Amino acid sequence: MSNVVVNNKTFQPFISSQKIDQRIKEMGNQIDNDYAGKRPLFIAILNGSFMFASDLFKSISIEAEICFIKLASYKGTSSTGNLITSIGLDESLVNRHVVIIEDIIDTGNTLHQFLPQIHNQQPASLKIAALLNKPTAMKYPIAIDYLGFSVPDKFLLGFGLDFDGLGRNLSQIYQLVNE
Length: 179
Ligand code: IMP
Ligand code: MG
Prior knowledge:
single chain; 179 residues; 6-stranded mixed beta sheet; 22% helix; 34% strand; binds inosinic acid
């Protein structure tokens, strides 16, 4: 497979679509086993996770629901930093078995700020499924219950992940080539 150029940066193939498919099927099987009879509610975080969420959800055969939210972070002028609010979470989470679907957990900042909002709604349980994690970049200790791949702290592209809005449509995952 060849390199791609997006916004004048070069990216090289990193995880093939076959490997991604296979790993997502394994994650789906694991979730099937863990959640049989529990009718889990998946909450996919847009934009990046849409492709992973779609494939993961197709690989699940038990009764399950899915909804999508968008997280908006605002640069605060005060020292409290970023405030993250969710848009589109209409479902009641009370007594539901919730599984958050994320594309990649990098610093962990997004989930560190967002998870308390979910906890406040008193779900029966709360787990996290992420396709990718950069363990050396993590600043907050987020326990990832279902992880696709652990990756080095390099910028990735494709399979939903973007670089300035582009590259989400690539069916495999690419890594930035250092120049
Ligand atoms: P975190 O809050 O630092 O954990 O990162 C959250 C978000 O940053 C992810 O959900 C992605 O949308 C984005 N992100 C982190 N690393 C990458 C990457 O390597 N490529 C593209 N987007 C990324
Ligand atoms: Mg994201």
